[in-house]
Amino acid sequence: MCEALAQRPVTVQLHHQRQTTDVPVAVREQLGGDRWLERVTSLHAHGRVMMDNLSYTRLDAVPDWFLSGLDAGQAPVGHLLGKLFVQREGMPGSADVAQALWSRVGLPDTRASRCYRVVTPESPLMLIFEVYRDGMVQR
């Protein structure tokens, strides 16, 4: 969607990435597992931020090539998800997940935010919290 609006490939800026066992309660409840990859990115085009994203990926539920793609940090996660059979499920946001993004990047904007879970036929894969920024609209 971002590339269609920008009419060009977007740039991924990786702010933070770590493997962790310490995640908000909502992540444990929605994904299961006991180890996750926490990742904060921004998508840019035309020199402006289009979107800030926080994702938690369940490490025992993804193939190695998927983690390698995330580590490379060169393409939006949607490009990697396109290689898997996944569905997106809208989720209610949680204050602790939102705060995990707000504490790293951007200003809080609950009106332009959404939270969803990415699932495969086998298990939940990711929890993503994202906020659309003014770079989504061309001036």
From TrEMBL:
InterPro entries: Chorismate_lyase_/UTRA_dom_sf. It comes from the Bacteria. This is Chorismate lyase. It comes from Piscinibacter gummiphilus.
